[in-house]
Design a protein that fits this description.
InterPro entries: P-loop_NTPase (IPR027417), YobI-NTPase (IPR048428). This protein has 1206 residues and is mostly helical. Helices cover 55% and strands 5% of the residues. The protein contains 62 helices and 14 strands.
Length: 1206
């Protein structure tokens, strides 16, 4: 009875448990948030039902027995199966092998397969009720049910009945036991019958049980007999009958096999497929049995997979590296962690997590860890680092376990910190030393490069000079000559190179000749000038210096900060070394690399894996005290956790030693000057007494100390030799930078007055100072009262630049002016600074800049404007302003105006000493007024005015103006008339505009000018004027020719011989005038003067008229002496009437061929067919000198002359 009640209570308990589970499932629905999630497969993975539809199709297909659901690990295969089983109404057997671990060696593989098959068989057989498999050889513990009471009663009664009947065996044998065979004897008959039934039941039970027995072997002493298949490898094949019997006795039609692919053994799948075929082929199994496998895609090759399985269902993974961020964020939302966790970190780390169960477990543990670490009510830990530690714990559990014992890969990496710090400090110090050596070498190289550049140009200049040159100069009137062997080192070297003319002295000459060297720079370098090349060298050196100083500035703080640097920063610095550090993490080492190098996993891990309890003094504090007690001075940046406790533990004399030079201790002193007054004084005394040995501490304290301002203020106030000590230090720049950026401005101003070397030092190193102190207040520099050499080097510090400019604290250089013009005053027209620098500056109307220039005008003019060769377009007002500076040397002003292209309009308001230079350099507007003003001034120079008027551009402009005709301008007109120094071209132009005709030639006027006066007819034609130029016969001829009409009208007053008249004929006078001149000549003497005859003949030939004085003799002479032959024929035709036939024949003999052949004879001369020859042969024929003539049109188109034969 008790057993019955117990059974009923157990059934009631199971029902209540099912109700509770159902309620919990509803409570844990997706709409309800929970702190934790289970890792079991979900049954809601197939919302659309597409996978279930596919499985149903396979289940209903009569040809499908092996179904595969394929997908990578974590793709959701189990969840899809659970979702299908949720709606599947028939029985399904699930077999999972996730608890096994595959081995790699051969023996392990064999044993492993048997283990796997044994597990499959056990899960199959032991999954069914033992009562359904009574004939199974695998016996299991059976729990008694309700019928067990009846069975036990049946057995008891059967045993009693058999015992009872056995006691009456003799009566049974003789038959007495059955008598009477009636109801009266019911008990005996009933007991006998029950015994018979009981015996049958027992025999039947033993008979049935015998089917489950198997012979394992027979052992006879040393001989053992076993079945042949006992050693068979496959357990499934060995127990195939058990499997078939299982399916005969159960209702399962679907067997689900999961995680079998984890063992990478395809033979097991082959065995299962064979078993499936045998089961479905067995006649005792009346239904289709289908095996559903969940496995990876790569378990079989494509062709084998499609042959093995009749239906394959691919699973699209619900998570991978690309969408794992969504799963991670979902877990964060579930735990309300959106605010605490860095979204970027989650996005990056999720790329390494592609297992949903792993992600869920990480966040389950995260909730547990957070709850424990926040037990004190305050969470000061980094939630991102906590999550990183848990990811490390789940992905590398073995390494995590070893980490607590100081072992494992991560522990080795963490132990590298001290070595990395040491290596990093040594690397930075070596780099700084290398950069400083490079800087020193660069500074030494610049003078060498400049010297080399000077030597190049010096040699090029000397090549142009005579070999015996001793010294040179740019001007012969002032300054000292420079010896040629000192040229490249001369202070005035730039002037020599920029000058167009060089004056030199040689050993052979006492005078100073000059040589034009205007093309010197082009010959050396046609692209860049000397100044440009020099500036490039200096600029390149300065740029390189700035880069190196910037690198040193960046490296110095790194030395101090590297000890406090994070582990990931140290590993990144030593990147080459870290390549091999992560090999211990295995194939998934990229995740560990990310967590460590990004700083999420570092030496603070213990704060997230255990609860921390702090004491009064840390191990670092104790280590510091131990070292100083051993007379060892710790490093200045030695980390002290509880400085006040350490100070209390130190002795009074310790504060007078180097032990006090610790960053944390000094910060503590200066944070409370009243409490630690005596310690501060001892600290200052120690620094003042041994400043050199305190350098390392000061360098470290500058980088990592908190109260640098207080420390330097105390030193500057109480130590009068602080500035000299700092400036003489190797780290002078660092000291000065900290000094000017921290101490009060009043103290700084006082020190700058007392120590002049301080502002000089700041000026020389300003760019480096500002590179290190970009936030420096401007008044801290202006109070030092120094001039900035190059504003452009500090252009990025606009506030400081503006402040220094407003105070006028800048050197007057072209570079600074250009910077001020573009950056401070913001003028876009940069080109104007190079074309009209002074004009552009005046146009800004900036008082600071203009006042700076006026105060240093001599320097500005000589060192900025004059070297600026492109500055040629200053306007008139700017030039006038420059010329009014009486304190400037005349040579300097002369050089300035020669450089300008602009011309002054008038001499008004111009100092008289500049008149001559202006005219000499052609920098005054050409006008008669300006010329007259110059002539009337006490500084007038005829040469200067003549040179001025002689210029083509001056002549072009001034001749457009009418020359004054008034009496006051008489001197100007007279000057022009007598300007013997003018070129003939210029003189001719100026004479042309003179309004008057002069009676006589000016005395001492050169022949060329006289010819111009004759050409321009500016002198009256008279015999006196003719006689005044008797020394120049050609001018006399030209004079007569120019006035030929006047001469012909008054020729009686001029007694000219035939030679003069012949020369007159050679001029360009009209032909009619020449004929009249010929009539004045004696033609009787032409026989002895062939040239004159030819000249006259040519003139007569050109004219239609004939001179009256030509007779027979003169005609004969003119014809014979004329030239060329055409002129002779023309003259013969013209004057043949004046000569006789004999003279004609004589003349013909004097003519060239073929004319000389015209005589008596048998020949037939041929003449060119032209008008003159036709006229010739006609009158020759008419005068019977030739027989006949005709045109030969057959052969050569010439005139054929037929002669008389006698």
């Amino acid at each position: 009875m008790t057993k019955l009640i117990t059974s009923l209570i157990r059934r009631l308990s199971d029902g209540l448990n099912r109700v509770i589970l159902l309620l919990e499932r509803r409570q844990n629905s997706p709409t309800q948030r929970s702190k934790f999630v289970d890792l079991a497969p979900t049954d809601e993975a197939d919302e659309k039902g597409i996978y279930a539809e596919a499985i149903e199709f396979a289940m209903n297909s009569p040809k499908v027995f092996n179904i595969a659901i394929t997908g990578p690990y974590g793709s959701g295969k189990s969840s899809i199966i659970q979702s299908f089983l949720k709606r599947y109404k028939r029985d399904a057997l699930q077999i999972s092998l996730a608890t096994f671990i595959s081995e790699t060696d051969e023996k392990g593989v064999s044993a492993n397969r048997q283990e796997i098959e044994r597990s499959i068989l056990q899960q199959m057989l032991y999954g069914a009720d033992a009562n359904k498999l009574p004939l199974s050889r695998f016996k299991r513990i059976q729990s008694p049910d309700v019928t067990s009471i009846i069975k036990s009663l049946f057995i008891t009664l059967g045993i009693l009945s058999v015992t009872y009947v056995f006691n009456f065996q003799e009566n049974i044998v003789n038959g007495d036991y059955f008598t009477p065979f009636s109801l009266e004897n019911w008990f005996n008959l009933g007991v006998f019958s029950f015994s018979i039934v009981f015996a049958w039941v027992v025999l039947h039970h033993f008979y049935v049980a015998s089917f489950g027995l198997s012979l394992k072997g027979i052992s006879l002493k040393d001989v053992e007999i076993k079945p042949a298949n006992d050693d068979e490898t496959s357990i499934l094949n060995r127990h195939l009958d058990e499997i078939i019997y299982f399916f005969q006795r159960t209702n399962y039609d679907l067997v689900i096999i999961e995680d079998l692919d984890r063992f990478n053994n395809a033979d097991i799948f082959v065995t299962l497929r064979e078993i499936n075929s045998l089961v479905n082929a067995n006649s005792g199994v009346k239904r289709h049995i289908r095996f559903l496998y969940a496995l990876r895609d790569d378990m079989f090759v494509s062709t084998e997979r499609t042959k093995f399985f009749e239906f394959i269902i691919p699973v699209i993974p619900i998570i991978n590296t690309s969408n794992s961020i969504d799963m991670v964020l979902a877990q964060g939302q579930r735990l309300s962690l959106d605010v605490g966790l860095d979204r970027q970190f989650l996005r990056e780390v999720s790329r390494y997590l592609n297992d949903l169960r792993l992600i869920q477990n990480i966040f389950n543990e995260y909730k547990i860890y957070v709850a424990n670490l926040e037990t004190d009510g305050e969470n000061l830990l980094d939630t991102n680092k906590l999550l990183a530690v848990l990811i490390y714990k789940n992905v590398y559990p073995k390494d995590f376990e070893q980490l607590h014992r100081g072992l494992g890969t991560l522990a080795k990496i963490l132990d590298l910190r001290d070595k990395l710090v040491e290596d990093g400090e040594r690397k930075h110090r070596n780099e700084i030393m290398r950069l400083e050596k490079t800087l020193e070498a660069g500074e030494r190289q610049v003078p060498g490069d400049l010297k080399e550049l000077r030597n190049i140009y010096a040699m090029a200049l000397l090549e142009k000079l005579p070999s015996n040159t001793l010294s040179i100069n740019v001007n012969q009137n002032y300054a000292q000559f420079v010896e040629v062997f000192n040229l490249s080192s001369s202070e005035n070297f730039d002037e020599f190179i920029e000058s167009k003319v060089i004056y030199y002295k040689s050993s052979n000459n006492n005078y100073v000749p000059s040589i034009n060297v205007s093309n010197l720079q082009n010959e050396v370098n046609s692209i860049k000038s000397y100044q440009q090349r020099r500036e490039e060298i200096e600029a390149k050196a300065e740029e390189n210096k700035t880069k190196i100083l910037s690198k040193i500035r960046d490296l110095r703080p790194k030395i101090a900060s590297i000890r406090t640097a994070k582990l990931n920063e140290l590993l990144r610095v030593d990147f080459d070394h870290e390549q091999d550090l992560f090999e211990g993490f295995g194939d998934n080492g990229e995740l560990a690399r990310f967590l460590i190098l990004e700083g999420y996993l570092d030496d603070t891990y213990y704060q997230y894996t255990s609860l921390f309890h702090s004491g009064r003094m840390s191990p670092n504090d104790n280590k510091f005290l131990i070292q100083i007690r051993a007379f060892i001075t710790p490093e200045p940046d030695f980390l002290i956790d509880n400085p006040h406790e350490v100070i209390a533990a130190m002795r009074s004399e310790d504060f007078q030693q180097s032990y006090v030079l610790n960053v944390v201790l000094v910060d503590s002193f200066l944070s409370n000057l009243i409490r630690y007054q005596s310690q501060v004084q001892k600290l200052l005394d120690h620094v003042m007494s041994d400043f050199e040995r305190c350098e390392e501490f000061l360098d470290t304290y500058y980088s990592s100390g908190i109260y640098v301002k207080q420390l330097l203020t105390e030193l500057a106030t109480k130590w009068g030799r602080l500035i000299p000590a700092m400036l003489s230090s190797p780290n002078s720049k660092e000291h000065v930078m900290k000094l000017i950026s921290n101490i009060p401005t009043t103290t700084l101003r006082s020190h700058s007055r007392d120590f002049e070397e301080l502002p000089v030092f700041v000026s020389n190193n300003l760019s480096e100072i500002l590179l290190n102190l970009p936030e420096l207040e401007p008044e801290r520099l202006t109070c030092l009262n120094f001039e900035v050499k190059e504003l452009s080097t500090i252009h990025q510090h606009s506030d400081i630049v503006n402040a220094l400019f407003e105070e006028g604290l800048f050197a007057l250089t072209m570079e600074n002016i250009e910077f001020i013009f573009e950056v401070i005053l913001i003028f876009d027209d940069r080109e104007s600074l190079y074309k009209n620098n002074y004009t552009a500056i005046r146009a800004t109307e900036n008082k600071v800049l203009n006042q700076k220039i006026e105060e240093n005008f001599a320097y500005y003019l000589q060192d900025i404007l004059l070297p600026l060769k492109t500055n040629t377009e200053e306007d008139s007002s700017a030039i006038q302003s420059v010329l009014t500076h009486d304190d400037l040397e005349l040579s300097v002003l002369r050089a300035f105006i020669e450089q300008q292209a602009t011309k002054l309009q008038t001499l008004d308001h111009i100092p008289e000493r500049m008149y001559c230079p202006l005219f000499e350099s052609n920098k005054i507007q050409p006008s008669w007024k300006n010329c007259l003003s110059f002539m009337e001034s006490p500084v007038f120079s005829e040469d200067a005015l003549t040179t001025f008027l002689d210029r083509d551009d001056v002549r072009t402009v001034i001749l457009k103006q009418p020359i004054p005709r008034d009496e006051e301008s008489q001197s100007l007109r007279s000057f022009i008339l007598k300007a013997n120094s003018l070129t003939n071209a210029s003189y001719s132009d100026y004479i042309q505009v003179l309004p008057s005709i002069y009676k006589t030639f000016p005395s001492s006027l050169e022949p060329g000018k006289i010819r111009i006066l004759i050409d321009q007819k500016k002198v009256k034609f008279s015999e006196d004027n003719f006689d005044s130029i008797y020394e120049h016969r050609e001018l006399q001829i030209h004079f007569i020719a120019s006035y030929i009409d006047e001469y012909l009208a008054e020729n009686d007053e001029f007694l000219l011989n035939d030679d003069y008249l012949e020369s007159l004929l050679e001029t360009e006078i009209p032909i009619t005038s020449k004929l009249k001149v010929i009539e004045q000549m004696d033609l009787s003497s032409l026989f002895d003067n062939r040239s004159r005859s030819a000249l006259i003949a040519n003139i007569i030939a050109e004219s239609d008229s004939n001179p009256k004085n030509v007779n027979e003799d003169s005609a004969r002479d003119l014809i014979i002496n004329a030239s060329p032959i055409e002129t002779q024929i023309l003259m013969l035709n013209k004057y043949h009437t004046l000569v006789s036939d004999d003279d004609v024949r004589y003349i013909l003999t004097k003519l060239p061929d073929p004319y000389c052949e015209i005589k008596t004879g048998y020949s037939s001369p041929r003449l060119i067919d032209n008008q003159q020859n036709q006229e010739l042969v006609r009158w020759l024929e008419s005068r019977r000198i030739i027989s006949t003539w005709k045109k030969d049109t057959i052969f050569d188109n010439k005139i054929k002359v037929n002669l008389f034969r006698r």
